[in-house]
Amino acid sequence: xxxxxxxxxxxxxxxxxxxxxxxxxxxxxxxxxxxxxxxxxxxxxxxxxxxxxxxxxxxxxxxxxxxxxxxxxxxxxxxxxxxxxxxxxxxxxxxxxxxxxxxxxxxxxxxxxxxxxxxxxxxxxxxxxxxxxxxxxxxxxxxxxxxxxxxxxxxxxxxxxxxxxxxxxxxxxxxxxxxxxxxxxxxxxxxxxxxxxxxxxxxxxxxxxxxxxxxxxxxxxxxxxxxxxxxxxxxxxxxxxxxxxxxxxxxxxxxxxxxxxxxxxxxxxxxxxxxxxxxxxxxxxxxxxxxxxxxxxxxxxxxxxxxxxxxxxxxxxxxxxxxxxxxxxxxxxxxxxxxxxxx
Length: 343
Prior knowledge:
Elements: H1 3-15, E1 20-23, H2 35-45, E2 50-53, H3 61-71, E3 76-83, H4 89-102, E4 108-113, H5 117-123, H6 132-147, E5 152-155, E6 160-164, E7 176-180, H7 184-193, E8 196-199, H8 207-217, E9 221-230, H9 233-248, H10 251-274, H11 278-283, H12 287-293, E10 295-297, H13 299-312, E11 316-321, H14 328-340
Parallel strand pairs: 1-2, 1-11, 2-3, 3-4, 4-7, 7-8, 8-9, 9-10, 9-11
Antiparallel strand pairs: 5-6
């Protein structure tokens, strides 16, 4: 980052009331991994604080974030989220510490989550487990111990480690742990054991309930993916319906959508899906559900949507750009600009 760019960044962040981030998670299907650097550079130029990615079957999270920080220094870096079944806590500690050593002035936000039976079990062959809260609690406890730099001897129900010691010397800044959470039990647990909680796939109106659950556990920082796109809402409504359909068929997301007020739509989606009526299930994703979660429209609408999440209790909004359009990168650029105008 040049001196002038850095000074401009500092001025923008000083004036901004809340930090803002962007995730590459929604863009992995539209762009090659190298485009992450372009998105990160655009975000940095507009004063964004953090850059996040996800990990399913596309880019590996830490390789992507390492590339980004090597070319666009100064951004905090988050994995939002990696399935905890796919790495042991010591291995995840090693990956996070490596990234922290490469970016010593940045916050490394290790986002972990329990994922889903399809991702963890069917796609990766790692198994899903039947006690997600207990496994997450133990995973985070061991991960934090492994990041301490001290010798770790651990004998738990899910993990057993003997004489592990992190072989990377870190300064005072160490990776922070963020837990992806949707439903009541995981939200409370995240508040209790993590530095932050990452919310996703919920309307701004459901944020206060989610924050209340987190606060029953503790004072974790509230991060939230905000799904927005400066694009033609009517033209790309089917893409948003397809997106939300794929999550409404997952039990944990279905429960959260129902709690957020979309129960009728969720029931019809799942009934039609069970009957192998895919087109009917897609059509059952209501306009209300799309407009609440995958917000598409002009720049003013996107600006207002991002602000609504912040007003609802989010500490750091993470823009989840919807790249729906003939020129997806132009849509992303316009979306990042509109979101930045919220603060």
